[in-house]
Amino acid sequence: MQSSIKDSTLNSMQFRAVIVMIAVLVLPAVALAGSPAKLALTGARIITVSGDDIRNGTVLIENGKITAVGRDVSVPYDAMEVDCSGKVLFPGMIDPHSARGLDVANESRDVTPYVDVYDAIDPSRVYFEESLRRGVTSVHVMVSNNCVVGGKSRVVRPIGRTPDDMTVRAEVGLKLSTSPKGGYDRMLQLQSLRSTFSELDHYLERVAERRYEEKLKEDDKPLTVGPEEARKRGKELVRDEDLDDTHRALDGLRKGRLSAWIHAGSAMDVRPAVDIATKQGFLDDSVFVIGVDTVRAIGELKAAKRPIVVPVDMVRRNRDPITGDVTEEFVPAALHAAGLTFALQPSPNSSMAERFLNYQAARCVRHGIPRRVALKSITLNPANMLGLGDQLGSIEVGKIANIVVFSADPLDFNAKIEQVFIDGILAYERSRDPRIQDLLPKPKVEALAPTEESTEEGAKSESEGDADGKKSEAKSSETPPKGDGTPNAPAGGGSGQ
Amino acid sequence: MRLLFTVWATLACLTAAPAVWADSFALRVGRVITAASEGPFEIEDATVLVVDGKIAGVGKGLVIPPGVPVHHYPDAVLMPGLIAADTNLGVTPRSLRGSSIGDESMAAGYRAVDQFDRYADFRAYLKHGVTTIHIDPGAHRLLTGQGAVVSLAGPAAERVLVPSSDLSVNLGVHNPPTDLEFSFPASSEVEIEAPSRQRPTSRLGQFLGLTESIDAASNPDGKFDFHRNALGQAWRAGLPLRIEADRGADLLGAATFLREKKRRGYVVGGAESHLVASTLARQGVPVVYRPRRSFTTPTTDVGTSDASIDTSFADLKSLTGRVALAPPHGESATRLRLTALMAHGAGWDRERAISAITRAPASILGIEQQVGSIASGRRADLVLWTGDPLEVSSHVIQVFVAGRSEYQAPTSTSTIVRAGTIWVSPDQQIEDGELLIEDGRVVAVGRSVPHPPGARVIDAGSDAFVSPGFIDARGHLGLAGDRTPGTPDVDLTLALGVPDVTDARVLRAGVTTVMLTHYGLGTRGARVAAVKTGGDARDDRVIAAIAGITMTAAGQDPIGIQSVFARELERGKKYLASWQKYEKDLAAFLEKEKKGEVKEEKVVEEEVIKTAQNDPISGVWEGTVSGGPLEEPQTGSMSLSLKGSRIEGRVIKPQIPLEHLIVLTLSGKQVTGHVEVETDGMGYPQIEAELTDDDELEGTVSLMGVAVQFVAKRVDKTPVAFKVEKRSRVKSNRPQPPKISPSLEPYRLLLEKKIPAVVDARTPAEIREVVALFVDRYKVPLIILNGNSAEVHGDLLREKKVSVILPRTVVTTRRNEPYNAGAALSRLGLRVGFQSDAEDGARDLPLTALYAVEQGMSPDDALAALTTHVARMFKIDDRVGSLEPGRDADLVIFRGHPFRRGTQVLRVFVGGEEAK
After folding, report:
1. Least CB–CB distance from A187: residue in B111, B157, B184
2. B250 or B734, greater pLDDT
3. If we measure between CA atoms, which residue out of A153, A25, A168 comes closest to residue A101?
């Protein structure tokens, strides 16, 4: 398969097919190929995140779960041993909040709790492949912030042929936003949010009333009370299936089935967010997705004690209106000082170092946040926010074996991600990553002569005006220059992992 | 002592402009405008006590609890924070008014407070005194939603005063957006909705629509409608109606509607309210009046259409009922004060105009118990102005919201002094004038001067008298008893430091400048320096390091006087001539250069030097260098050649990569010189050596205080030829200046007539001889010092324009009669000055002058003798001595003419800074 990439004697249809195949088939196939029942990763430094680091330790994986971690773990005879000496094992990182797995980030309607990202996840999106390459083993796919109430989210693995294959947990949360959606102002945004829940109350009362009347009919009893009383009495009779999708999802927030991911993009949006979540009773199940400016409301964030998804930029720049002086504030540092837990996000911009979660964590350490906190903010914290703290986010016995093998400390800028295990299977191997291998210089590079020849040939074939065949042949005989032919591969891949 | 004073001065400055304000403090100001409904409306020289963000007391002579800091602004006016009952303030970065989101006609569910950024920085509004505003949800629907009242500063949690203050109704919205609602494609989730109903546009329809909506909200039909529910809640909660209307008919309709619905409310806009003022007043409908005129740009054309509304500030005259003023239509809330000012101009009394932007809006918005006046229990929202807020030129100094200092005007360099009399100079006095000070200088003086924004205004009062700072014509302040006789080369300003206690003592007496001399006088002359008694740094204190040259002719034989001084004067003349020649040559050169006749070329000379044989120097020298920073002695060799007494050479070993040339001079056995080499501005290494024996040289090389020793032996006397690339020189004939001689510098200035000679001459004979020498022979400016008998030669002195410094005791006894030299000489038309001949004794100089006045001198002559005359005789009148524009802002404020009533000094300023 690898050769088929380099061998580009294909027409465009075929080429596109290859791309899809790589994305959909190759990577999972690679992964599934090496999936022994028992696996032992030995001799590595293990950053457990939950506890202390272990030097020269072993992680034993059975059926996709971690069964032992430590220095003195004996490797069973039937386990496949992978020598990781000199390497660093790190829990699979978690992208806490991303719409990039979707075909479109948001609906154009403002209140859409009835939609589910399930219908829009595109497993072939390069985003998943990139996530895997960067050591992200779980992605929380959620609609973006440009909404009033968005659809239901889910946590997926970046591998698998279908959304079902990929799913770790479905119906995780709903996105709400107190910052205005595009074209809205805050009055309309908040009116719309309040109206949504006020309408839910109204709807539930009607359903309760209907259910009470149905119950009486079933029991052959006469209706003896007025509508107000019926609504009260019928409240207990309302079943989930009685509700339509919209109201079931909204009710799910109140019942705790879904967590609320509330976007408060600016300081003034925190108060309404807290007010609505408190009034509707889901403050304890909510996560705040903030913007850099939101940190001005640090007092209100501190009082709300909710976990926070940090904006990609992480630095707030404040310009004094009188003097024009600009001051900078590092957002996670302010959150940490306020005693709040937070999760970092990778940058969606593929040309920046910020696309690596471990780089984002390193920035935090650079700004004085303790290493342990910074590492948690890309592993255990997002796992807890997603309600998956018992399964993801650390290297501990009983957890899902999502492990990243780094060549050096994850916060070292030169560290490379060599292997990624998801559910105990080798999901990614750097040495077999076709895109990276294409970017890296080949061991044998021909001298000047053949290149000149091939150029001539290329010129000739071009002048002949022949179609695909010869032209491509001529090109294929050249040593592909760095980055050529793989426009989607991460730029500057040579310098990163 | 100086240090102590510096610390004290620094502390004094800190308390004057406090960076941190305590929770409790007292403000004592020139005037408090309480704007309260009870008690006095204004109090002169009153104090406001603020405890924990609230006003705890206001009045004259208030008892301040111990430990509470009192901040005193004697020139400032304090008033309550202004309240804008109507704003178009963009409460979020995007403007609110005109927002057309949502196309419902009745949308009571929208809340303006949702748009308010409680974290925003509103200092741009505080700067104009506005601390509280009403925000509305827009004016584009018949019923736009709920308004709110907010503070523009303070912690986010405390900024919203009333989250839902009213229901906002807009009459005369004649241009509604289209009402076609395109449904989202229908699905199980989205039902097809009918387009919303057309908004009523006629007057009839508007009130009908409102009535219908209110009725529907009170009797729900079971269908979910958020806005209707919100209207129902708001109506039941008794929210007042805020009715936006400009037309007289709409205003009357609004009044009727309120009465019929038995609902509290008020109208906003009210362009034609003067037409229906009596009805509105009778029915008790308050008006938030918004002028439809622009302060910033003449933008709106009224035209000839019937639909247009034309209003003027003069209409305000006929408004009688409860009226609050709002900023003009479409203008920022920062113009709120100007509308009150215009109302005052239109005939409103002070109290009404000020109330209309403070207490009246507070009462209309229902927050009267919290803000809008200065009274016990109200929130401490206070605005400190430079002067009366109803005066156009006044500006905000500081703003407090809930007792916190939220805005402080940038420290302006501009100060305006207002006084009953400004004594600019003997030739000009201004009654009821103003003086503008910027950057320590007088910028303008006159009946009224420009008021730059943020300028501090010192209104000294109509009986105040401002005079230039006094000048001591001869003093010794700062010499600390040093009685060393002066010489012409000693720079007296070296004795100066930052002002100390003695300086402050003199300064507080009003003496801002001292002509500083040594105690002892000789015949060679000594410098006179013009220095100030106040200022932050030494440089600020020096007006002129050489302002005169002083010497004594007292006690000399009059016959010999001319020869005594002539010698130095002749030397000075030669010295001056050398400078004049240089200047002339230079001018000629520059003229040539301008014409392009001077060719400046960089010449790199290369010459071959051969060493000769029979001299003590030429040849190759080998030796060792040691000491200094060198850890071990270094060996090396150099080649030297002698030409006359000039030695040139270079180092052979070790090879120096730089172009260099050793240039030495041989004199006897001494060899001195330097190495010409590029050292980045550190100068050339200096060589000092001695021929200790035949062919032996010993000496030092030094650079920047680092020295190394060397010993060298001549090893070869054969001539060695080598090339020396000389440093590139600009070959030009540019003249070189003569060497500066410190002791002749004063003479040069004297002979150039830039400074006067101050000669102690007491007897008529001495005076005559001195005048003959200095004025007749050398034609230089002359001041007779201690000229007690100058009266004898009065005509001569006047003719020759000679000034006189009076003896320190001005009034003496002559022939058993008091003799007042000051009066006598002034009367003769001579320019006289007073001297202290003391250090901090100069503080009694004004008393000396006062006594001279008592003994017959004219008060203005005495004042001139302390100011302008002295400055002019020393030719420093471009800096001090008068208050003309361009002079230093050294001034003294008295209560009345100092030499008429014996009034005391009130305040003293040096370089625009007030002396503490």
Report:
1. B111
2. B250
3. A153
Query: Shortest CB distance from A190 goes to which of B114, B123, B157?
Result: B114
Nearest-Cα distance to chain A for B728, in Å, is 48
Residues of chain A with Cβ-Cβ distance to B102 below 8 Å are 188, 191
Same domain, B165 and B249: yes
Euclidean distance between CA atoms A254 and A240, whole angstroms? 13
Report how far apart, in Å, the C-alpha atoms of A444 and of each of A481, A493, B66 are: 12, 20, 88
For residue range A59-99, list pLDDT tens digits in order.
999 999 999 999 999 999 989 999 999 999 999 999 999 99
Please report where in the chains the tokens 């010409």 appear, as a residue. B676
Is B120 found in the same domain as B268?
A: yes
B615 shares its domain with B553: no
Distance in angstroms (rounded) separating the CA atoms of residues A266 and B428 = 62
- Residues in chain A closer than 8 A to B137 (CB atoms): 187
Residue B31 within any structural domain of the chain: yes
CB contact under 8 A, B119 and A299: no
Residues in chain A closer than 8 A to B224 (CB atoms) = 198-199, 202-203
* Pairwise pLDDT comparison (B771 vs A488), residue with the higher score: B771
Q: Do A199 and B226 touch (CB under 8 A)?
A: yes
- Looking at the fold, whether B350 and B400 belong to one and the same domain comes out as no
Question: Would you say residue B855 lies in a domain?
Answer: yes
CA distance B181 to chain A (A): 14
Which DSSP category does B408 fall into?
E
pLDDT digits (tens, 9 = 90+) for A154-185: 999 999 999 999 999 999 999 999 999 888 88
Contact B266, B243 (CB under 8 A): yes
Look at residue B740 and tell me if it is in a domain. Answer: no
For chain B, what is the domain count?
5
A185–B94: do the CB atoms touch at under 8 Å? yes
Query: Does residue B402 fall inside a structural domain?
Result: yes
Among candidates A114, A186, A271 on the partner chain, residue whose Cβ is nearest the Cβ of B189: A114
Query: E strands within B778-890?
Result: 782-785, 803-805, 811-814, 817-820, 832-833
Residue of B nearest to A293 (CA): B119
B479 with B527, same domain? yes
* Region label for A287, one of left (φ > 0), alpha (ψ between -120 and 50) or beta (otherwise): beta
Domains delineated in chain A: 1-92+393-442+480-497 (2.30.40.10), 93-388 (3.20.20.140)
Q: Are residue B168 and residue B251 in the same domain, yes or no?
A: yes
Q: DSSP label at B559?
A: G
The answer to whether B698 touches B692, Cβ cutoff 8 Å, is yes
Is B412 within 8 Å of chain A by CB? no
Residues B337-349 as b or e (16 or more Cβ within 10 Å = b): bbbbbbbbebebe
What pLDDT is attached to residue B76? 92
Chain A contact for B148 (CB, 8 A cutoff): no
Residue ranges making up the domain that contains B679: 602-730
CA angle, B72 then B76 then B78, to 5°: 95
Interface of A with B in 307-326 (CB under 8 A): 320-322
Lowest mean pLDDT across A361-370, B193-202, B566-575: B193-202
Q: Which CATH number belongs to the domain containing residue B612 in this structure?
A: 2.40.128.120
**pLDDT score, position B486:** 84
Cα B68 to Cα B49: distance, rounded to the nearest angstrom: 9
Check whether residue B153 and residue B285 sit in a common domain: yes
Q: Is the ipTM of this complex over 0.95?
A: no
> What number of CA atoms fall less than 13 Å from residue B363's CA on the CB side?
17
Beta bridge partners of A226: none
The residue of chain B with its CA nearest to that of A204 is: B224
Task: Say if residue B488 is in the same domain as residue B615.
Answer: no
Contact call for B114 and A296, based on CB within 8 A: no
B823, B851 in Cβ contact below 8 A? no
